[in-house]
Amino acid sequence: MTSKPLKTNHPHLIVFPGKRPQTLLSESGEELRPPKDWAFLPAGDAAVTRQVKTRGPSWKVQVNHGRRKISKGIWASAQDIKESKAMILEKRSTPEYAKQREKTLARKQVQHDAYVKEFYFQVIQFLNFHPKYQAMARDMGEKITLHATPVGSGTVARTQRIPIEKRAQAAVIAWMRHKVTAYESMRIARIKGERRQVRRKLAQASLALLQDYRQGRDTPKDCPLKKALG
Question: Model pTM?
Fold first, then answer.
C-alpha cells in the first residue's frame, strides 16, 4: 500500500496510528504520512497544543481506550512546535503568570475539595447501611472516595457524562469488584461481551452482599467485605 500524498494546506485532521511504521490512518481509513518538516507533539501541555493549532494545519492522533477515544498528541510543523514552546515558556516565566497560576490552582483545589465531599456523601447515600454498620459505611466510603476522586485517575468518578449519584454507585461496584470478589484472579475467555457479562454477575453478587448490611443482618467474621476493610 502506498501512503496518500499529503496536502499541507489540509485543515486539522483526526488520525489514528497506522499499521506500518511512520504511517497514520485517516477517519476514512486512508494511509497518510506526515510531511518531512513535521514533528510529533505528545499530549500533556494543552497551552502549547492550542498555540500550535493556531499557527497552521495539525493532525490529532487518537487511540481507543475502552469505550472512549483519547488523544496521544498532534503532528504539526516542527517549526510551529518549537516557536509555540518558546512562546509559552516565556509567558510562564513572568511574575504575572505565576500569580495567576497560584490563584487558578487555589480555585481548582477548592472545587476539588467540594467535589470530594459531595462524592463521599453520595457513596454513603448509596450504601445506605443500617445504623449498627455506620462505622463500616464511613470506612468504606472513605476508601472508595480516596481511590476514585484523584484528578487524572481516569475512574468513573471523574466523568461528567453521568450524574454524580450514578458515578458514586458505579465507583462502589467497581471497588467491590476488585476488593471483595475473585475478579482479579479470574480467567475470562477472550469472547466479545464475556468480560462485561462477568462484571454484571459480580455486580449482582456485590449488591446482594450490601443488602445484609443495609438490613442490619448479622454477618460472619470472614465476610469478604469485612476483610477488604481490614
Answer: 0.70
